[in-house]
Amino acid sequence: MLETDIRELNERIQRESQFTDLIYLEMNKVIIGQKHMTERLLIGLLANGHILLEGVPGLAKTLAINSLANIIDAKFSRIQFTPDLLPADLLGTLIYSMKKEEFVVKKGPIFANFILADEINRSPAKVQSALLEAMQERQVTIGDTSFKLEEPFLVMATQNPIEQEGTYPLPEAQVDRFMMKVVINYPKKEEEKMILRQNISNTTAKTNKVLSIQEILKARELVREIYLDEKIENYITDIVFATRYPSEYKLSKFSGMISYGASPRASINLALAAKALAFLRRRGYVIPEDIRAVAHDVMRHRIGLTYEAEAENITSEDIINEILNTVEVP
Predict the structure, then answer these.
(1) Which CATH number fits domain 3-213: 3.40.50.300, 3.40.920.10, 3.40.50.2300, 3.20.20.70?
(2) Is 183 helix (H, G, I), strand (E, B) or coil?
(3) What's the pLDDT tens digit per position in 144-168?
(4) For 163, 167, 198, 260, which has the most beta carbons within 10 A of its beta carbon?
(5) What is this structure's pTM?
């Protein structure tokens, strides 16, 4: 790509990405702190990927995606996952109509732009796989008919890391369908005070609709156009290959600790998430820092650990940190 083309693209991205300020402004009215979560939600939205959020209850996970749906004038569905939930409760079913004397389709809550799958690990595998199939195929089959899901279609699933009783952990192959797994921490002391004040005051902050679905779809096309140099492509593949063949990257100490490395989806999602981050930062090209910024969220759920790693308290975070420190930056 010529330098003049990159310059033109850069100027275009700077112009076209102005709306992100409006989104941040509206989100900040209701969400205090949690900038990382808000940014990751926007990356998922712009890069057409789904997000898995892990955090203890009460950290504004539901509020965040609900607010985003309000800002974008999109349809929002919240599905509370429970052990007795059935796939039909999610996708919809065929109902016999006495009037028409035939079966008619009753669509389920999955037919929305933004889906909050609350506590996804509380439902059995049958329901989880129904949701994950809809995420992957972007369509739902009820009876003999297939229905395309409307774009944008963003699933934000939450899971609670502290309760293990009565939960069904997501299988590794299915977790891989999430573009990012974002771990949310407690707010800082000052932020907590602001949250406290906001919630006990008489006024309740409300978000305004500042964006249409068409604008988001147009922005997605722009994100795909962002320039990714071959050196950056090599950097991405080196990071991913270091999880599969650690000894080739001077990381022999992890050889017995990784049961399986990141899949090709990790490479694709590293590139897409980095492009979306470059867009949010008003740049028409990806730099190594973008890759490093999204690496943990894109890869933490894609590296399998052996018992040896668990015995030595080595986490996937430690492995990613070590890989980022070892793999040569272009």
Answers:
(1) 3.40.50.300
(2) strand
(3) 888 899 888 989 888 877 656 556 7
(4) 167
(5) 0.88
